[in-house]
Specification:
Elements lengths: L2 E4 L2 E4 L6 E3 L7 E2 L10 E4 L1 H12 L4 H8 L3 H21 L2 E4 L4 E3 L3 E4 L5 E3 L17 E3 L5
Parallel strand pairs: 3-7, 5-6
Antiparallel strand pairs: 1-2, 4-6, 8-9, 8-10
Helix pairs in contact: 1-2, 1-3, 2-3
Length: about 150
Amino acid sequence: MFIIFVGKCFFMARPKNLRKIENPPPVKGFHPTGADSAEQLVIINLEEYESIRLCDFLSLSQEEAALKMGVSRPTLTRIYSIARKKVAEAFVTGIGIVFEGGKVYFDSDWYKCIRCSSLFNNFLHSESPHCSLCGSLEIRSYSDSI
């Protein structure tokens, strides 16, 4: 939380609400071909990724995308604008993109296998989910690993 001092009054900034994400990104990020700088990266938050996925990939209107994410249309517009600026920065400067972080929750229960690092969801809501790829029971909630 931030405390803003104005005159003799203190104002606390309102905390961000969680944004609903349907699925995690299929990859952790992108690295441009021929780029030498591995230490410079643009970090795109998961809610920013979701706004691009909904608006550009699925061609939803901003109003429809805002409803899917559980935010207001002006909030989605801000998230989407920041995301597009970050993508443009990565393209123009030739640096990599990483998807991570953000104030999000997933539409279903997603897990990450500790043994093989695959992502899978528990859409049947079974009590003891296991990795769909290697069958391991060594799993962790995906939202805990971001």
